[in-house]
Each structure stands twice: as C-alpha cells, then as structure tokens.
Amino acid sequence: MSLHLRYAAISDRGVVRQGNQDSVFAGSHFIAVADGMGGMAAGDLASAIVINTVARLDVPPPPDSVVDELADAVADANRAIRRQVADDPQKEGMGTTLTALWFDGEWFNLVHIGDSRAYRLRDGGFEQITVDDTYVQMLVDEGRITAEEAERHPQRSLLLRALGAAEVEPAFQTIKGVPGDRLVLCSDGLSGPVSDADIARTLQNAATPQEAAETLVQQALDAGAPDNVTVLVADVVADDPGEQRQIIGGAAADARLAESDTAVLRAVKETDESEAGDGESETTEPQPRARKKGRVWRTVLACLIVLALVAGGGVWWARTQYFIGVSEAGTISLYRGLPFEVAGYRIAWLDTDSGRPAEDAVDSVESDLENGIRVDGGTAAEDELSALVDPAAGNESLDPLCATAAGETETQPAASQDCRED
Q1: DSSP assignment of 96-152, as one string?
Q2: pLDDT at res. 280
Q3: pTM above 0.85, yes or no
C-alpha cells in the first residue's frame, strides 16, 4: 500500500529578529527545514541556497541508490555555499542546518545536520527522531550533564556541525511510515522556547497539520520567540489527499534570493555546470591551499577543544560571533569568538583594537567589558564599539573627565594620562 503526505508549513520572523534566516520546503515527496546562521555573513542566503538546491528531490525516490542521491544533493548545496564564500570572503561564516525527509510512499529517508529537529507522534507516543549536533548534546551523551540541565546551559546553541563548513558529515537514517503518523520538522525557534511536552500536546489535539503548525508557531511567539520560528507538520495518510501545492517559505521564498538572476540560483547553477564539465577539477592552485588550511585548522582545534568540536566545525561557528571586551593591553576591543571558555579554552580572535583604555569606562561598563559584551553581527559590533569609545557620541559609558581628556588633541597627552591615573 502506497501512503501519502498531507502537510502544512509556516515560517515566522519571530518577535526579536529583524529578518528571517530560516527556510522551509514541503512537497508530496520531500519536506525540509533549514536554519541559517552567520548574521551579517548571510545566514538567510545559506538556508535559501540549501532549500533551493534540495527541493529538486520532490519526486518519487529511485528504487535504489536513494541515500547516494540524497547525499549528492546535500553535497551540491554545501559546495554552492562554499562557492559564495570564495566569491565574497565577507560571507565567511555563513552556514545552515538541514533536516529533511524524502518519502517513497512507505519509507522516509532522513538527512540531518545541525539542531533543527524532527519529531514523530505515533499512537499517542511522542519522540524526537533526530539528535542535535550541539555541544550540550555531546555533554548529555557523555553523561556530564542531564537533559534538563542542557535546556538551561549557556552554550546550548553552540553547533558542532552545519552546512557551510569545509567538511560536513550529515547523519542519514531510514524510517518506516505508518498511517496515522504525524511528523514535525522545526528550527530551534520552536524547540527552544516551547517544551517537548507542549509540542506533543498540540500535535495530539490539532485536527489538521495546518492547525498544528499555526498553534505551535503561536506558542513560540507567546513565549517571546527570540529566534525565527519555522514549523512543518506532515501527516502520513492512506487516502490520496489530492493535489497539494508545494510550499516554500522563509528566506528561500524571498524574491531577492529566489529569482533566477540572484546569487542563490547562480551558485546552484554553477555547481551543476561544474559537475557536468569535462572531468577537470573546479580549481587547480586553490585546492592545495585549501587542504593545507584544513590541516592547520584541524591541528590547532585539536589542541584547543574537544574532538567533537574539531570534527564538526564548532570553532568555525564561533568565528561568526562578536563581543566587545578588554585586550591584553587593557584597551576596549572588538573580538570574534566567544567571551567564555569552551572545554577549558578561550576561543576568541582580536578584530579591532580601539586604543581606548578600559579604565576610561564607568565601573559598571568596565565590569561588563571584562565579561564580554555580546553583539549581533559584524556591522552592529563595529557601530557599538564606535559608540562606546567615542565621547562625541554623547554616551554615558565613559567617565566625563576621561571623555574630556580623550577629546583633547595629541599635543596635550598629559590630560589623558591624568585621566587614566585618576
């Protein structure tokens, strides 16, 4: 007996974020959710590239080699992201999760990388069928913290794997479909603020996938929705639901990213063309450099953090984060990385040194600087640094005496010196 999918999908910007970096696709044979990351480094572009690439799988899977074709599609998407970074180095750090199911009428072929989740409700039983590729999940697996502690862990969003890294290792599994199954794919914008118990209750009570998706998104919004919220609900049914339109949402539906002359489809098209070429490698000289860079990074990371972070690219993700702190010279500086230790090591790289002594700041701000002031995105970070160290901006973060001294010309160094000594 051939089974069918009845589905619904919603992607919402959420309450806090200014844009949507999630993407979603739903069709009769293929469903997928991608959660982009990278802030100013174009996380929305990364998720759109992936969804626009893998959406080609919304056809009946082949009777054999289905896993190979699924893996090839994911590899194509990852190459398209990497090509964008090669063309525009400012996009370094862009990446995305991916959780997708390819359905043949009986079996689901699942591919998963990152922390977007797949859940299943079957005969009243509810379970998560993916395993988060996160630092805290690794700690849970090792027995170092409990699942309850993981939900409150300050590093719960630290990914170990994502598409966009030079090397990716998605997880694959095969799941049998049963009439009455209700499946959910979602970004962590749902699974973060809404508990598994509430998700399960909503799935049990909703009459249709559309009702379930709408209710789940609203629950995330009611909980504050600090991130983008994307929910896809699919029911496994015996009766043919008739023609259903494909759903494409979030960043992948943004006209600026989805039109044929945009970077997304150009990247995908270039990937396809390179594979259809005469067998020559895509590049010649850059390849040895890329391999050398990969070896160096793996060596360094092995000395810095646990093996799982090395294998998955957690430090790659850390380089997309920004904070303002105090340099070794005692000046207010902008860093890439994390203002705390991971596995006993500090993962941070100096980006911009303002030259302004941290001692010039009022006590409360100086304390915040010592702990690291997190900033979302590179442009916002530079603006925040400028506002913090520029007394002409009218901020009250600096001591008034120091602000006056800092405004003097270079021919009056004594005033600045007296300020620091005070």
Answers
A1: E-EEEEEE-SSEEEEEEESS-EEEEEETTEEEE-S---BHHHHHHHTTSS-HHHHHH
A2: 42
A3: no
